[in-house]
Structures are given as C-alpha cells and as structure tokens.
Request: fold
Amino acid sequence: MLQIDALPAFTDNYIWLLQDASRKECAVVDPGDCAPVSAWLDSHPGWKLTDILITHHHHDHVGGVQQLKTATGARVVGPANEKIPARDVALVEGQQIDVLGHKLQVIEVPG
Reply:
C-alpha cells in the first residue's frame, strides 16, 4: 500500500510524495523545487527515490527535476508532447508504467 504525503513547495504549491514503506522506496510528482524532496530524503536515511513523475512542463513542476535526477539517479517520466528536462520515458494516452510496484495508466488531460 502506498502512502501519499504533500511536501509544501514555494508559497502555493505541493510536491506529492508516494512512499512504499515495505520497499523503502519513493516517487515524487512535479518537483518544482528539489529542496523539499532532498530534505525529506535526508531525514529518511535508507530510502531511495526511484521515480520522478511529471504532469506538465511548467517551471513550478519541473524546476527541481535535473538536480534530483543527478543526486539520486531516479527515472524521469512525463508527457511525450512536452519538453521535460532529463526525461527518460515519454508517455502518451493509454500507456501504463510501473511505479513502486503499481501499474499506473496515463490519462491525457489537455488544457
């Protein structure tokens, strides 16, 4: 079972942290700032950031991606039709991806 926490970012945003305690692995969604994620990892020794999930290219969602990938080696996944820094996997509507042992399906929401 995954635990999901919100890490405050900037003055008006959150980075979603998905955690699998049995594996001591986690993933983050839209890390616009690497500092909150790095602080969480520093306070949870032994945990590994495996994935960085990006919903769209705005800076407040991707600003921390490159630093986190460099520091942790985490896989970066995001929309194929957007410029996502350091993206390893480009996703499109209907694709599935395994994150922390769970299958996630991509649902594109244009806007």
